[in-house]
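Note to self: keep these together.
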Amino acid sequence: MVGMPPAPLTVRAAAVAATGVLVVTSFTGCSDIANAFNGLQQNAVSTPAPGPSASTAAMPFDSKFTYDGSVSLSSDVAEGLEVRLDVWAADPKRTLEWTPQNDKTFGFAVNVYDHRVDEKAVLTQKRRVYLSMVSITSQVSQSTIGAPQQPTMSPFQFSADPRTLVPTDTLRSDRGLLLNSYQGGLLVPQTTIHQLPGDTYGITLQFALQIWVEGTANTDSSFAQQTVYEVLPIAISDPTVSAR
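Structure:
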């Protein structure tokens, strides 16, 4: 299974699009993936910072990230069958240093665990889970009082069929990418949230994972489709406070 850094990881691939689904060929290196993400993210929707006449108020935000910038979100998709989404801050590595102005880079991984069998059990003994689509939308929380209302926006968006992001020898089917294979789940090493409105005090990432779940191990006729939703609120720091 794919874990989180610092342990070495085999990069599968990753892609990001401002809107819609992006289909790309496989990447082989972290630098290629970073360039693909960051280049395409330049097209994401942005909102200008509030004018100097706007008054702001400090607002609390219930961030799920830990102090060192990581979080593990878990969903039970069947009895004893867990889909796990791990997210970590990459640069800066502490989300306390994430501000509206700087680039905020994070990575994430999707894996599955069948707790009914030993982790080292062969695949035919495990209930298979296929991932057919990964989507992320976002929403910002702003503290400006008295400023003109900005339109609803999603400053960070991601949508991809994982089968287009991995080498051709990776186990997959018409249901999607197989998560519980010896090759591991889906890994996106890094992608970047760019500049946010100046009064942003939080951003909420909304993950949607479309999966196919096997009801009985090694039984093709027992698959059922479902969508796993995870919400990740992340606090954004005020650089003027940090500098004091």
